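Hi R.,

Here's the chain you asked about this morning:
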Amino acid sequence: MTRTERIPPNPNHFVGNHPLINSDQLDQYYPESEDSRPGFRPAFDDASFHKGTAHWQPCPLSRKSLERAIQQISAAELPGGEHLIGYLQDQYRRNCKAATIRSAATAICLFLVFLKQRGISQLEDIRRQHIGAFIECEQDRGLKVASVRQKLQNVYAFMRYLSREDRVVPELLLRKIHLKLPQRLPRAIPAEDVMRLLSVVDHVRNRAIILLLLRTGMRIGEALNLQTTDVDLNERTVKIYEGEKNATGRVVYLSEDARQAMAAWLKARQAYKPILFYGQGHHYLCYNAARVMFKKYLHQAGLGDKGYTLHCLRHTCATELLNAGMRIECLQQLLGHSKLEVTRIYARLTDKTREQEYFKAMAIIEAGGIDGSDRCDH
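And the predicted structure, written out as tokens:
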């Protein structure tokens, strides 16, 4: 799916006359002190002129992430640093997202620093035990299993790249190290807590955001990237032109309460801004601001100690739709899952057949309807 028209951002945001996006994102991309941050350079690939108007092409965030990573790798003098730069450039050419490039650069840099500290200066000397020792080191740091597994996947992806370049021994990829992830249930918000939460949301924009997430099941990143032209109140649809994880577009639908909340926000918002949800004085609302807003309402509703997050609204939507009888194949399309197995996780929360079979059997047991001849251990 592609939009027919995209309004480019203000060029001043990219050349230093205004903040890059906002102070929160600036700190995210450049965690150092302000004195050591690199100066902003013009972040445009090209500019064309039509009828006296300059049309700027902003540099994508993936390019900024790549250049930032190259700068850090070159300064660190890591073993195989030039091959890591080549690998990240290959990721950029394959149109990987900025977050993917940053995650790969961080994990592989940690691995190369680990090798450097142990006196390994040639990539050809890497063995399976070195990868295992690196994983143990990360586990000893107290990282969650999912975080360590993500680093391991990035390291093995780099090893595959090096294997194609004949820089590591092929045996590294024959017997991979696997980390078992716990099979946790998705965290859905009970109906009574949802009502308590909605009862304290009095801001028209924030109510539209929360109901949009709760009734459509879209991810918060997808909601914050929406433009006004993506919403059709008459058809009660929202077009997500690029999914946040799999880059696949889809259409989701608005319930009546979500449609009313969205209509109220569209009437109250500043019409000249193309982004659907924007922050005060900024081009668009960032994730951190949305997270703080949600936590504020949780505390007001007396739910601050229950650990709910914005993503729990997505889990709640999926669980309620399955409980209402929606086929799991339809739910997969609405949630934007590439694999049906991912959607089946919600079925573990909503298996009514299993629930009915259990209580039917337990009623027989409690009524004393089982005698010794029914025992299965004879």
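Residues 5-32, 34-57 have pLDDT under 50 and may be disordered.

Let me know if you need anything else.
M.
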